[in-house]
Amino acid sequence: MPENPDELLTLKEAAAILKVTTRTLLRRIEEGKLPAQKLGTGRTSPLRVKRSDLDKLLNPARPAQDESSGDA
Question: What is the Cα Rg of the chain in Å?
Answer without folding.
Answer: 16
